[in-house]
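Data availability excerpt. The first of two example chains:
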Amino acid sequence: MTRRESPDSGRFSTVPAMYSPHPDRLVFWANVEFTYEQGSKHYGEFEGGFVYCFVQATDARDALEQFQIEFASRKLGMRFVEFVNLYAEMTWPTEEDQDHFDSIAAIAAASEEVVFDSFEVYERR
């Protein structure tokens, strides 16, 4: 693990020095707004929501493709993708948030799967 200080905020980021055993793959993350599609576990119960997701990928396009495949397999529509970014340089405003999201990124680094943070959902109207 390395501990980096963000030059702008003076906050620290603890991130693995090498995210992946594959040198051509790094951890990317995205913020995705989604909808529940027919056949999904919560279809008809909730409208949709948003979630941060993390994955090992060679670049942002590869990450987006993996997110699309995972969302489709869960019968979730991707309404809006706010961003797909490399996680390595990310700093958070609190140490608690930093530890939380760094731990999710570390799980993604050790996995071939898409890893999700908590799903935040919208109720149906």
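And the second chain:
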Amino acid sequence: MLLCWSATAVEAIRDALHEERDAEIRGDDIALTNAQRNAKRAGEEKNILDMFCKDLGSFVRFYEFISQIVPFDDTDLEKLAVYAKHLRPLLRPDACQCQTLPVSAGHSHSIVNEPLLS
């Protein structure tokens, strides 16, 4: 199952900012500090995920270029490059659509619609 990591990270940032705004309205300094910390942490996590996606693309481009010049006999590296090449498009925020369905006891579950691969 493909996880919508980018959408989840954006939702975490949005929720933290919403909590921050609510804490400001209530005048709750402790909740405000916690909400600011959560917003900062969620932003850092999204930056890490974005950097991973960027690094994955850089690796694929570098490997495709250098493998034309230098013959590699490492099949594991070739497999990694092929895997990374096919993984990167799936990591785009618009590559999957998450839907959250409410269920009893206040919990929620996400259903992920995976794109069809050709």
